[in-house]
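Tokens in:
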């Protein structure tokens, strides 16, 4: 039997919120509801440790989950966990920050398996930066990066063993000193076992953490076709025997009217990315009045836009592009287009579709090409 203890007795002070951050609406649901739903498939019992004043708002959120109830928190995190351990019924207990709503099933499952095999499982990720120990603003020690990890939750243990460690700390009067269970367990039981965490399993703590975890963007672009003799000499051209779509060379008997290489779906995709991060369109960043972009490689411009996305703390979760043109036929080139976009976006889930306009309008008459793009970004 598995008991999950969710630590939810905070006040939201560090996040500059007027209430407990577990009530913050994220993707349409309170943070606590997202965390509960993540653990529900694995838990026989869920204990939400909370302040008395929050209990009335928490109880309705627990109603969909069998075995979920509240218990009163203490003055510190360790004291809150101590209170919950007194009533935990499972032989395995997982302690988790209620404000870590992005925990995955893989991480939870791995933590439970670690407890079954080794008696404990502390989710952690290798430190990407050098960890410094400091006092009074002065560095006192450097932790070797090769053996430095950042602790996360859940942290799992055999319940009786953890309960015994907490009792010893309680008797020694040291409970307030511990900010996580692994430190207390190491001091009063044994060295805990590490298990795999996940960098997306972040804790919502500061105001910047509460930016939307996902963003959607939409873009559209249209260009006219022209036969060679109809093209103005002042418009840059690569070749009259092919066009570029998603960075792929597609044989064509007509060129695309454009200042750059005229890669219509990539232009739509760039606008979708820029809209998702609240920026202006590609005409602002890469104006067709600037000679520097005459004949420009749109895939290179896409790389610049992707850097902007990464620069504001997001990456591409998935993307979809739809191309409408009567000719040329695009089906033989779709997979290559997908490969190019996957590499450019750093994202495996990319769809490219192509269709005609059933002989209707400028597309059906072969006078132009239009592309639509949608993207979903995720916070890093």
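Residues out:
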């Amino acid at each position: 039997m598995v008991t999950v203890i969710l630590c939810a007795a905070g006040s939201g002070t560090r996040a500059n919120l007027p209430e407990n951050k577990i009530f913050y609406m994220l993707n349409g649901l309170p943070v606590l509801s997202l965390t509960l739903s993540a653990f529900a498939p694995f838990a026989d019992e869920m204990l939400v440790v909370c302040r008395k004043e929050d209990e009335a708002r928490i109880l309705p959120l627990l109603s969909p989950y069998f075995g979920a109830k509240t218990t009163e928190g203490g003055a510190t995190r360790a004291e809150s966990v101590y209170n919950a351990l007194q009533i935990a019924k499972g032989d395995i207990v997982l302690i988790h920050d209620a404000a870590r709503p992005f925990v995955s099933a893989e991480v939870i499952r791995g933590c439970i398996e670690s407890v079954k095999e080794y008696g404990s499982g502390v989710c952690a990720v290798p430190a990407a930066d050098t960890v410094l120990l400091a006092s009074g603003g002065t560095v006192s020690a450097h932790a070797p990066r090769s053996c430095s990890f950042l602790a996360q939750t859940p942290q799992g243990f055999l319940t009786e063993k953890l309960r015994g460690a907490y009792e010893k700390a309680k008797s020694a009067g040291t409970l307030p000193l511990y900010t996580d269970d692994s430190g207390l367990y190491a001091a009063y039981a044994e060295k805990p076992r590490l298990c795999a965490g996940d960098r997306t399993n972040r804790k919502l703590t500061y105001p910047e953490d509460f930016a939307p975890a996902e963003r959607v963007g939409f873009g559209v672009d249209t260009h006219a076709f022209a036969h060679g003799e109809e093209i103005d000499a002042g418009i840059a051209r690569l070749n009259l025997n092919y066009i570029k779509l998603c960075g792929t060379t597609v044989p064509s008997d007509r060129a695309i009217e454009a200042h750059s290489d005229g890669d219509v779906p990539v232009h739509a995709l760039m606008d979708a990315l820029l809209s998702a991060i609240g920026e202006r369109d590609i005409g602002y960043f890469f104006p067709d009045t600037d000679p520097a972009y005459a004949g420009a490689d749109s895939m290179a411009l896409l790389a610049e836009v992707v850097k902007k996305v990464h620069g504001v703390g997001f990456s591409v979760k998935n993307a979809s592009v739809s191309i409408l043109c009567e000719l040329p036929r695009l089906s033989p080139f779709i997979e290559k287009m997908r490969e190019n976009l996957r590499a450019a976006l750093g994202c495996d889930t990319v769809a490219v579709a192509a269709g005609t306009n059933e002989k209707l309008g400028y597309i059906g008459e072969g006078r132009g090409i239009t592309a639509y793009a949608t993207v979903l970004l995720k916070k890093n």
